[in-house]
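lol forgot to send this yesterday, sorry. struct tokens for the thing we talked abt
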């Protein structure tokens, strides 16, 4: 008996056998069941995803002796003839070799005749986009009003080449690439039926070689059987498919993330002398770094389902100590040079340059971490620190002018010094500390509410009453007293103090308001100086010096208040 390749032997014969196109199968089966079969269908999508197979199954379902039926019997003469490709009423036409106007005219003549032995005369035109413009125009009228016994089924891999006038006369179904898992399930079923021994890892590599096409994957599997016989080892699959090239990807990414440019160049040399096409390898490397980015963002899952468990674990291990920003920057570098590599006559040189640039790139710090670091420095500047000349882990503290209190004391704001002292005592500690802790808690719970309360003046906390002052007419004075801000503020205060708390917004009159303005101005000047000190301490050049020389002491940070904006020293 003549040997039939797996792609032909295991071609779907019913809708239930179609893999990965559930949206198409469900629509067509419902159309048959409800008697709403259209006169023209257009199936588009990547190669090997089941377009012509679905067309054949639909033809059998419509012409089956027991039908029209959602499940053709595959036993009657009509079904058998369609399966064998010898039916007189189902014509499969290759659009590439029958693309002219003469062939379409001949089709228009034959379509008038009733089917010989079936219910419908069906025309399946594969790669319909190959028809000429004149042929499409000649087909328009027939396609719009065909005889009641005629049905057209078109298939194409390049839908954008099909004229809009044809599209508007057809029901269009878009076939999708088949997920790796479903291709693996199909191959495993074939292997079990054929008595072939192969590991899941080997099937994963073969399925990935199909690139979303089940027919391509089956063809590769057929080739693998011819190479290895009925027992396929992983080494055989690696040898035939060149899967070993992928190990270079993980080695290069590990070297790049470790900042080892020399190792990167040695790996490129190995890749080159292994006979791997550098331009193709560059595309694989770009895909690999995008997988690293997706692993960092999503932690794996469906977006990386085409990778084996071992590969996903390796990706997790590599991205664990690296920030998302760093991985995105490295992927940006690869994408920026993609076109240059594709057009280059010496792609190896381009690849070596790109990898060196990536390996020497400085790690990027997330914005949240920078903000947290700045807030920590700001908090330290607002808190009384060590005396001038004292050496700390951050260097020697320089001489500085006396600090202004972070907010006015209760007696300065309201003129009631004894009441302010009593309130601080009732609060169980320093009012400033209590106020700072509450603001930090509020910032975590509601940043918008924190930003409104930040300009306020702490007046005291006693007997479950938190008093906060604002100058009368301040933009947030009335807002914080209205719902929902007042209720939300009270709720957060109760959570912080672990007791029933009432928040009172108090107007600051006269000296209190002027006092607050003066203090805020003093704070602004102090914060400007602090900001410049912060910029100096975190300057890349200073950090580079610390990295190079190791144990460096910062003895003094000078702030030049006379410099222009943006030019602090």
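and heres what i got for the seq, position by position
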């Amino acid at each position: 008996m003549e040997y039939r390749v797996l792609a032909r032997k295991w071609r779907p014969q019913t809708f239930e056998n179609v893999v990965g196109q559930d949206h198409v199968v469900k629509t067509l089966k419902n159309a048959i069941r409800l008697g709403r079969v259209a006169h023209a269908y257009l199936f588009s999508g990547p190669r090997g995803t089941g377009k012509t197979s679905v067309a054949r199954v639909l033809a059998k379902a419509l012409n089956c002796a027991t039908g029209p039926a959602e499940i053709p019997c595959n036993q009657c003469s009509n079904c058998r003839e369609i399966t064998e490709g010898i039916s007189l009423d189902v014509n499969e036409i290759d659009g590439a070799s029958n693309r002219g106007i003469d062939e379409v005219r001949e089709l228009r003549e034959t379509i008038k005749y009733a089917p010989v032995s079936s219910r419908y005369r069906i025309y399946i035109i594969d790669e319909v986009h190959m028809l000429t413009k004149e042929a499409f125009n000649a087909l328009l009228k027939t396609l719009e009003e065909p005889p009641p016994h005629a049905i057209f089924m078109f298939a194409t891999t390049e839908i954008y080449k099909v004229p809009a006038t044809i599209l508007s006369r057809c029901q269009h179904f878009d076939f999708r690439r088949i997920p790796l898992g479903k291709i693996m399930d199909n191959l495993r079923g074939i292997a079990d039926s054929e008595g072939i021994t192969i590991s899941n890892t080997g099937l994963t590599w073969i399925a990935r070689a199909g690139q979303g096409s089940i027919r391509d994957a089956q063809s590769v599997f057929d080739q693998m059987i011819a190479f290895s016989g009925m027992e396929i080892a992983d080494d055989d699959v690696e040898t035939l498919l060149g899967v070993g090239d992928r190990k270079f990807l993980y080695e290069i990414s590990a070297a790049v993330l470790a900042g080892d440019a020399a190792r990167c160049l040695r790996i490129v040399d190995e890749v080159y002398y292994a006979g791997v096409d550098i331009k193709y390898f560059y595309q694989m490397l770009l895909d690999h770094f995008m997988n690293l980015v997706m692993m960092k963002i999503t932690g794996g899952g469906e977006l990386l389902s085409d990778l084996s468990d071992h590969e996903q674990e390796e990706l997790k291990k590599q991205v664990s100590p690296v920030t998302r920003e760093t991985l995105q920057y490295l992927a940006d570098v690869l994408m920026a040079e993609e076109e240059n590599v594709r057009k280059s006559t010496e792609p190896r040189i381009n690849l070596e340059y790109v990898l060196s640039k990536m390996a020497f790139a400085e790690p990027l710090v997330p914005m949240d971490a920078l903000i947290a670091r700045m807030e920590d420095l700001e908090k330290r500047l607002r808190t009384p620190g060590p005396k001038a000349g004292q050496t700390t882990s951050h260097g020697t503290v320089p001489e500085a002018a006396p600090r202004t209190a972070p907010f006015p004391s209760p007696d300065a704001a309201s003129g009631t010094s004894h009441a302010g002292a009593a309130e601080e005592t009732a609060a169980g500690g320093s009012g400033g500390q209590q106020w700072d802790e509450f603001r930090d808690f509020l910032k975590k719970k509601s940043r918008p509410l924190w930003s409104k309360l930040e300009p306020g003046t702490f007046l005291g906390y006693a007997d479950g009453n938190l008093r906060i002052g604002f100058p009368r007419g301040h933009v947030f004075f009335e807002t914080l007293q209205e719902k929902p801000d007042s209720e939300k503020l009270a709720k957060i205060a109760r959570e912080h103090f672990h007791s029933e708390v009432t928040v009172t917004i108090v107007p600051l009159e006269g000296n209190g308001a002027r006092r607050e303005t003066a203090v805020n101005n003093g704070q602004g000047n102090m914060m400007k100086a602090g900001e410049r000190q912060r910029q100096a301490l975190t300057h890349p050049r200073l950090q580079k010096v610390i990295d190079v020389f190791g144990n460096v002491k910062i003895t003094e940070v000078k702030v030049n208040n006379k410099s222009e904006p943006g030019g602090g020293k």
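The longest strand covers residues 150-156. anyway ping me if u want another try
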